[in-house]
Amino acid sequence: MRVIFNEIKKIFNPKMVFLLIIINLIMYFLYIEFDIKHFPNGRPEGDIYKICVEMHEKYGEYMDENEFQDFVKNTYNKKLKEINKYIQNHTQFKKYGVKNYNEYIKKFERTYGKYDKRSKEFQNIHDKMVFHDWIELFWEFPQIEDYIEYYKNKDKIMLKRVIDNNNKQETKIKEILSRGDETSIFPYMVFDNYNRLILYGSETILLGIVFMIVPIYLSDKKNKVNYLQYTCKNGRKTFKKKIVAGIISSFIITTVELIILFILYSFNNTSMFFNCSINSFSNYSTSWYNITFIQYIVITIVAVYILVLALTLISMLISSMVGNYIALIGLELPIIFITIKFFLNILVNYIGNIIYAKWVLTLAYLCIFLIPIILIVIVWKKEKVLDIV
Asked: Which keywords, in A-to-Z order, does the entry hold (predicted)?
């Protein structure tokens, strides 16, 4: 146990920890900060978020048909009266004979893109009201209208997600409709925002893991310490203890960074949607599994730990095989680049997504979990009988 503890101390030496912090800060300011500081991101996302929060407070996680009628009767009609009153009291609208919201929309559609004087004047009134004065009603009300329209057509919206007449996808979506999961009050920007944060967070974690773990065996080789280790049976066990130390260190780094990430994420104020089904018509993603948002979060966290374990073992495997840092960088960089560039988004953001057959990502994670373990066991067995050269 003392050897493992000492190896962990070597991994977390002050210089390496300082550089790890620098890496994390760079990644934060480049990729993560925006999705923390700018959520929801402007309009109309902010208006959609506000509407969904209000619906959630009034109706809970799901909106059934009776609650939908209540939403139309109270929220929609109330806002319609407000916006009609605003238009009626607006002197410039009277000039164009616009008395209510429907007439305003028709007038805007007729004048949009035209360059005659009256059309331009009306467009200027619209632009000033919407983009300069930021009149809330004219941002919020169209989103309420859209939500009502989407709700009425929610079955069609869900069934359109079937790709190439895939029977399994169609069966799953019909199951979602029969369960009523599509009525979940779960706005798409909440899901998208979390997916971006966990993706960039996992990229940051994996980069940090590689940076901290790769020297674990190579440093001993450079200092010829491995020659001393090979001279006795207990010394050869150091290889295995380094594996344990590397895994523990990686999990410590991952846990600390995830805690920090979720503390930052808590400021986005999305906890009210944790118990909502992600299979909502208002979310663009559909899952094979009947899970809530909080369950999805837990699954992605588990996925990150599996990826961390795999990359830790691969990094240690490479470290044990190469003889210098140039070879180490030459082997490690392509692996981390390919992982982040081509596979990480699929492995983290598309877990359970019906875009892929149910078995694809399950098999992928099984391979990611087992192959590095098998390889490290093979190398460990060779290390036990390796002669000093």
From this structure: Membrane, Transmembrane, Transmembrane helix
